[in-house]
């Protein structure tokens, strides 16, 4: 099972992870993002990469699941190139 933690002292409440997560895992509570639906996480790590404060940590994500992110990046690059 994937465990998500947010460092509240690092999170600046920008909301990027809330908008980016395709599984609607996060909600903003005040100025801090909270993983309110962690069971929905599929481990793409998109939020981890987009967070400007490096406030997000995921445990239990296996390397094979990173391919989802890598494939998305490749698809984006193929459209640009
Ligand atoms: S992207 Fe990072 S800094 Fe922004 S709300 Fe999410 S956890 Fe906080
Ligand atoms: S790893 Fe992917 S699915 Fe999980 S919380 Fe982050 S953006 Fe959402």
Automatic annotation (TrEMBL):
<protein>
    <submittedName>
        <fullName>4Fe-4S dicluster domain-containing protein</fullName>
    </submittedName>
</protein>
<keyword id="KW-0004">4Fe-4S</keyword>
<keyword id="KW-0411">Iron-sulfur</keyword>
<dbReference type="InterPro" id="IPR017896">
    <property type="entry name" value="4Fe4S_Fe-S-bd"/>
</dbReference>
<dbReference type="GO" id="GO:0046872">
    <property type="term" value="F:metal ion binding"/>
</dbReference>
<dbReference type="GO" id="GO:0051539">
    <property type="term" value="F:4 iron, 4 sulfur cluster binding"/>
</dbReference>
<dbReference type="Pfam" id="PF13237">
    <property type="entry name" value="Fer4_10"/>
</dbReference>
<feature type="domain" description="4Fe-4S ferredoxin-type">
    <location>
        <begin position="32"/>
        <end position="61"/>
    </location>
</feature>
<dbReference type="InterPro" id="IPR050572">
    <property type="entry name" value="Fe-S_Ferredoxin"/>
</dbReference>
<feature type="domain" description="4Fe-4S ferredoxin-type">
    <location>
        <begin position="2"/>
        <end position="31"/>
    </location>
</feature>
<keyword id="KW-0408">Iron</keyword>
<dbReference type="GO" id="GO:0016491">
    <property type="term" value="F:oxidoreductase activity"/>
</dbReference>
<dbReference type="InterPro" id="IPR017900">
    <property type="entry name" value="4Fe4S_Fe_S_CS"/>
</dbReference>
<keyword id="KW-0479">Metal-binding</keyword>
């Amino acid at each position: 099972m994937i465990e998500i933690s947010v460092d509240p002292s690092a999170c600046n409440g920008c909301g990027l992870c809330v908008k980016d997560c395709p599984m609607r895992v996060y909600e903003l509570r005040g100025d801090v993002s909270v993983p309110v639906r962690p069971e929905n996480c599929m481990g793409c790590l998109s939020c981890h990469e987009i967070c400007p404060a490096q406030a997000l940590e995921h445990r239990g994500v296996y390397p094979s699941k990173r391919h989802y992110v890598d494939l998305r990046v490749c698809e984006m690059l193929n459209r640009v190139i």
